[in-house]
């Protein structure tokens, strides 16, 4: 049943939130430290494990895949509910940060690709 | 008219499904007809979202208009984080091993470099608090890592909007630049495609960029980009936020 997939996703999400919250308190910082990231790692591990044991039925998988196909629409709704008027003053920051940071990453690609080849 | 607004307000989440569905449809149509699929439809749709947020009255963008209140629920942190976690289904550790050491380095380095380059520029452009700098640095990773981090550390809606805009510009920039410089960075094999995905993190930009370069490379880049996004959601609101706090 699809709900099994949704339930697996919910379990990963909640455990991730719990770990993130726990880290937040341990390091005495406000907020949730990496809860989404922990949840993603859990889901990847669980997916690998269930696939190896052939326990993940396509129907169950569909329950998770539905939500992953919803993520762009959810991000669109989120964008539509931000304080864009105030953010416009930061328009130049957005443009300069995006282009500079991305260009630096682009430039490093050939060097990192080489590291591995010499190792091999 | 008032009746209609009442019904829409009462069924906010359902109306939000309809509104976002409409935005997605128009964006895909626009992407296909006007940009000839050269710009990812996801980036167009998110830009569309940012534009309509402008017509709202304040802090909450379009959700400040009663009929559209459900948009805040659909785009709120709970459903957002839930759907983002689900995208990890596109990644797998047994697959990622094929990318080897360079792949692993690219996934971590792509996040760290984008984060610090973004944060340093923001600092020199007048942002001085750790929460804003962290959120803008995270936005330089992807339009997902930005708002996830912003919500986790408690940044303002205005800064979160800037971080989404950075991520969207990055996605479009990656899409346009990739086919142009593919030869120069030897982006013509699965190995380099994986490193490229890890370094640039933005799954939408990487997928669209590779599709315009060599469609066979898309799954390789998308895999490491998904991993990199997850890594960003993990590192930015935790270790990297901690480091920023030490400097500020």
Largest sheet of chain B: none
Number of domains of chain A: 2
Summed over residues and divided by their number, the pLDDT of chain B gives a mean of 92
Largest interface: A-B, 77 and 113 residues
In whole angstroms, the N-to-C terminal distance of chain B is: 52 Å
Radius of gyration of chain B: 19 Å
Number of domains of chain B: 2
Q: Which structural class is indicated by helix and strand composition of chain B?
A: mainly alpha
Could you state the order of secondary-structure elements of chain B as H and E? HHHHHHHHHHHHH
- Report strand % of chain A: under 5%
How is the biggest beta sheet of chain A arranged?
Answer: none
Strand content of chain B: under 5%
Question: Could you give the topology of this structure?
Answer:
The complex is a heterodimer of chains A (120) and B (248).
Chain A lengths: L1 H25 L8 H18 L5 H12 L1 H10 L3 H4 L3 H29 L1
Helix pairs in contact in A: 1-2, 1-3
Chain B lengths: L1 H9 L1 H22 L7 H14 L15 H5 L2 H10 L6 H4 L3 H25 L5 H10 L5 H9 L3 H25 L8 H11 L2 H11 L4 H30 L1
Descriptive account of the structure:
The complex is a heterodimer of chains A (120) and B (248). Chain A has 120 residues and is an all-alpha fold. Chain A folds into two domains: 1-82, no CATH class; 83-120. Chain A is 82% helix and 0% strand. The model of chain A has no long low-confidence stretch (mean pLDDT 89). By secondary structure, chain B is mainly α. Chain B is built from 13 helices and no strands. In chain B, helix 11 packs antiparallel against helix 12 (203-213) and helix 12 (203-213) packs antiparallel against helix 13. The longest helix of chain B is centred in the C-terminal third of the chain and has 30 residues, at 218-247. The interface between A and B is large, with 77 and 113 residues.
